[in-house]
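Have a think about this chain, tokens included, and walk me through the fold.
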Amino acid sequence: MTAVPAENHAPAPAARDTDVLLRTEGRAGFLTLDRPRAINALTHPMVRALDAALTTWEHDPAITTVVLRGAGERGLCAGGDIRAIHDDARAGGTATAAFWADEYRLNARIARYPKPYVAFMDGIVMGGGVGVSAHGSVRVVTERSRIAMPETGIGFVPDVGGTWLLGRAPGELGTHLALTGTQVGAADALLTGLADHHVPAAALDALADDLTRLPADEALARHTTAPGPGVLAEQRAWIDACYSAPTVEEIVDRLLDSGVPAAKETATTLLAKSPTALKATLAVLRAARALDTLEAVLDLEYRASCAALTSHDLVEGIRAQVVDKDRDPHWKPAALAEVTDADVARYLTPPPGGDLGLAG
């Protein structure tokens, strides 16, 4: 692809639209999530603003690359605005389901976007932050990246296409990350397929500048480096052996019986999560592996998300972790053995308002 000289397209002034800054320079359109005090947590208006910008730039021949960044030093995006989700769930509202519907449509659109979509996955990238970045065609991590799908800790299930991504990680690494919510750095993000390139954080501004003048692959070639060591490759043997079990209970038993200290610590981590969320997550993740498209998986996740919205554990989990911050959730049911097959089946059943219908 021929580079478009930057001087032919003078930088346009940044525009604010509901905590999303929009800017064009040269051949690139820049999306900046701009809620730094909340680590750029996504709101419904932000999702709509992102979608509208993608529509505009898709049909603008002057824009050949889209770049996603997060404001501030803490991270790209910590996820959705879970305080708002907590309040809506307590009130029995419909705002959260509507937010998820538009968010999941955005995730699918990013995955199919016809122009290079370059996501700077610097710092914290969790939950909804993964959804707006890890489905992009060019995913860049740094030495500061901390990527996770931590939903089971708040009584929820991985969504935004997270089970599509994690279900396709090597072996059972994705199952481990989905159930535990473990954060991974750059090397492990590359290993598990959550990212494509490592660029030092100090070089991101230079990369962004190069993207205004050069095709994405040429710009990346100037800045990509090898990441530091990860941890998952060395843990792969016990992770694959333990997480291949058919149930969460047996996974925990295998972890405890493995003789590996890290595996035993992981069992303790799992037993602190919502038992219902753990079982629902395993069911959704394994169902997602059998589906052929991201859109079909997002439809499946929408079912699970709507079921969680009417559960006890989502409200309780957010209360304990975010609202009261006592870190002492009281799950119902409180033990894995008390979660029935019917409890799990509810997460795979179309919600009262009907399926999302992304897969057609």
